[in-house]
Amino acid sequence: MKELSLHILDVVQNSIAAGSTLVSINITEDLDTDLFIIEIIDNGCGMDEDYAEKIKDPFITRRKSRKVGLGIPLLYAAGKRCEGDLKIESKKGKGTRITAWLKHSHIDRAPLGNMADTIKILIVCNPEVDFSYNHKKNEKEFNFDTREVKRILGDVSISEMEVITWIEEQVKEGLKSLNGGADTL
Amino acid sequence: MKTIQELEEIRKKTLETISLRKDQTGTRVVVGMATCGIAAGARPVLLAIMDEIKKHNLSDVIVAQTGCIGLCVYEPIVEVYKPGQEKVTYVKVNPSKAIRIVNEHIMKDKVVDEYTIGTEA
Fold first, then answer.
1. Is B13 in Cβ contact with A153 (below 8 Å)?
2. Is the CB of residue B76 less than 8 Å from the CB of residue B42?
3. Which of A121, B26, B53, B99 could form a disulfide with B60 if both were Cys (CB 3.0 to 4.6 A apart)?
């Protein structure tokens, strides 16, 4: 994938397929330790612990339609390529936590890309699921949570176009403030 | 910075219009959002469709996603479901094709034959 935000969009689909009602996306950029950490935590159906480690293998999948799944293996490969790795922790009935880390300055590390687009699509296509997004860059931090937005909206759906545009601006501006006013990472 | 007040305003404005379209049965546009779709460029396609719907204020059109339907080589795939009509499957869609699909098929009921699976495949 050309952007880490596309990996995130892809891996979160697993959380949604697992019936999660809340998905937390946490990104930590620590320039001192030179790490780019992506963490996706859900409260979906989870899986057995020994099965969880195996899903880095593209030929291990629970989907019924065919025998391969590439979402996790691609993110795993992206991590490995950049002196990083991927860890899966899961408890059946509780949820799953995927942690991927990459060397921040690695020449092969894909840019984060457009996180606002990823968040926007996740919300429009899954208005019933809640998403929280936390992004830390050194000492700066940005938080976004659909539960707060929904509390204000009341009866109005979060997938209304006007609301989505507001969310997009919110995320864009939040990320901009992390990057000292620059648009992209 | 976008403020909570603005969100409140949007809420009030939307509540006024929402009752007008409650009983409409609209068109569904479905975009493949599995690994294959995303890698092939489904995200900009879905965003282009959303922007076009917003631009023309098509309030009875629903955008949704689906998983992999097993035709990964033809991704990005867009399916259009119009009430009372057969499903139309568009393949190898890009943002400009998506805009045409919204303008011709969704708005004017004219299927863009050259982008459909029968023609491209």
1. no
2. yes
3. B26
**Level-2 CATH architecture, domain B22-120:** 3-Layer(aba) Sandwich (3.40)
Which tens digits make up the pLDDT trace of A146-178? 999 999 999 888 988 889 999 999 999 999 999
What's the rounded Cα separation, in Å, for the pair A108 and A79? Answer: 10
Per-residue confidence band for A55, with pLDDT thresholds at 50, 70 and 90: confident
Question: Which of B43, B62, B68 best probes binding to A when mutated, by most A CB atoms within 10 angstroms?
Answer: B43
ipTM over 0.85: yes
Q: Does B56 touch chain A (CB under 8 A)?
A: no
Q: Is residue A184 part of a domain?
A: no
Compute chain A's Rg from CA coordinates: 16
How many structural domains are present in chain A?
1
Residue A94 lies in a domain: yes
pLDDT at residue B1, as a whole number = 57
Residue A31 resides in a domain: yes
